[in-house]
Amino acid sequence: MLFVELIVKGLVYGCMYAMMAVGLTLVYGLLRILHIAHAGVFALGAYMTVTVANATGSLALGFLVATAVSAVAGTAIYRLAYQPILHHAAFVPMVVSIGLFIVMQEGFRLIFGAYGIAFDTNPWYVANVSLAGISLTYVEIAMVIMSVVLLVGFGLFAGLTRAGIGWRATVTDPQMATSFGVDPVRVRYVNFLFGSALAGIAGGLVGLLNNYVEPTMGGAVSYKALAIIVLGGLGSVRGTLIASLVLGVVEAFGAIYLADIFDRDAIGFLFLIVVLMVRPQGLLGRG
Fold first, then answer.
1. Could you read off the pLDDT of 193-228 as tens digits, one per residue?
2. What range does the record give for the signal peptide (predicted)?
3. pLDDT tens-digit profile of 122-175?
4. What is this structure's pTM?
5. Sign of CA dihedral 106, 27, 201, 220
6. Rounded alpha-carbon distances, angstroms, from residue 56 to 29, 142, 183
7. Within a 10 A sphere around the Cβ of 136, how many other Cβ atoms?
């Protein structure tokens, strides 16, 4: 039973990693930019969720506001920070992104305080529910359901709609897509809009899971998300999803059996190093 429970817990965290890392993969696949500031959008979503939920008593409203604000923030980052410097070498947008993430962290510290915010006391959604002998909270169940619905929805959008096919074509061959009438600028906006909305939702869920939101909460998650997109194969959405779930399960088992040697974060990066030594291009990356 412990084996099954660890797998389930690992998949729960893997779903959270997936919602965070997919946005990074979308940006890298389209622009070849390591979008570090994505972690700031993740934290912004958490702050919007807790602030609105505590002020209004409505958790649903908190997530709606967090999704909208995160989506707008992500597109604003592209328009104001990335678009003017896309013609520079790849390291220039990355440096800008790192600086923007640091600025966002300090902004959260100044606006919301350095000690973090908790959700109102004794919320019903942290209660435990037993499913087939496995104890899960409502937040963990919601994280799995929301990630599956959103990511499957994105898959259907990318595979069945004209806009989604245009996005895929732009990622594969931007010049050919443009010659067929696809607007690359519009595709980029949709990319940042959807990826940032996912990050905001993931931030709110993690804030709920920990019942705590603080300025630097995006730091560790951003490092793991970068590790995941490398592990999955840079630019591969399918590889990112698989790597997210695998990493969540590996961390769950490692936190039990290797806790005396490594902490949870170290286990994830150790796994990344081992995999890349065997397969440098990642799980689904091209050689």
1. 988 998 999 899 888 888 889 998 888 777 788 888
2. none
3. 566 667 777 767 778 888 888 888 888 888 887 787 777 777 777 777 766 667
4. 0.86
5. negative
6. 39, 21, 40
7. 18
Sole residue written with tokens 């993430």: 101
Tokens of 276: 């890349």
Token pair recorded at residue 117 = 């915010």
> At which residue do the structure tokens 């995160």 appear?
70
The two three-digit tokens of residue 2, written as one number? 């412990």
Structure tokens at 119: 């959700």
